[in-house]
Design a protein that fits this description.
With 206 residues, the protein is mainly α. 57% of the residues lie in helices and 0% in strands. It has 9 helices and no strands. The relative contact order is 0.14. Bound molecules: fe (ii) ion.
Length: 206
């Protein structure tokens, strides 16, 4: 079953009533809206991209946080994946709950590894295989936008600093930053302009 952006937003708004701290919901809306603007701009450049699906991916990517707000990378990913599968949504919608956390099709490319790269984690092998295939354009947009949004839109540079300040520096931090900057450049090149031009309000958040 497909998930429209409208339905995804409705799922989020139901959770806003249930959650103690709705900042993850505001973040999810920011990711979806930011992703939608980038997708639309790419479409206008002639690329094949499903704008509504991209927005839906953004809205739903952190839905696993409805179970435990302060959950780690692996737990919020698997909770979101299982939840959307149980609701009957297509694999790609459940899959974004896992894929958004890992760049470069690599389980080691994540923003912080805290206790997450524990290879004894029951989901480690599943995730490692699951993210191996090249991501779609829609999925790559979510990768980027998750790294452009807290509860508001930021440059990836500022978002990287936000992550460093909140979580600290880990063994894979440098690798993750390098790949993130490459991803930003990848979209700048597809657009043939700096994607920050799409978001004039970004300078108010520097
Ligand atoms: Fe997120």
């Amino acid at each position: 079953m497909k998930l429209t952006s409208k339905e995804a937003k409705e799922i989020l708004e139901v959770e806003r009533v249930n959650t103690k701290d709705d900042s993850w919901i505001t973040h999810s809306l920011c990711v979806g809206n930011t992703a939608g603007k980038i997708a639309q701009a790419l479409k206008e450049k002639g690329l094949t991209v499903d704008v509504d699906k991209t927005i839906a991916f953004g809205y739903i990517h952190d839905i696993g946080k409805k179970f435990i707000e302060e959950s780690g990378v692996f737990s919020h990913a698997i909770n979101g994946y299982n939840y959307l599968k149980e609701l009957g949504y297509d694999e790609e919608y459940a899959g974004i709950c896992i894929k958004h956390s890992f760049l470069n099709n690599d389980i080691d490319c994540l923003s912080n590894d805290r206790d997450e790269t524990d290879r004894s984690n029951p989901h480690y092998q599943f995730f490692k295989e699951y993210i191996k295939k090249e991501y779609t354009l829609e999925e790559k947009i979510i990768n980027l936008c998750d790294l452009m949004c807290t509860t508001q839109i930021l440059t990836v540079e500022k978002r990287m600093i936000d992550l460093l300040v909140r979580h600290g520096v880990f063994a894979k931090t440098h690798y993750h930053i390098v790949v993130t900057m490459k991803l930003k450049t990848y979209f700048d090149n597809l657009l043939s302009y700096n994607l920050y031009d799409l978001f004039p309000e970004i300078k108010d958040n520097l």
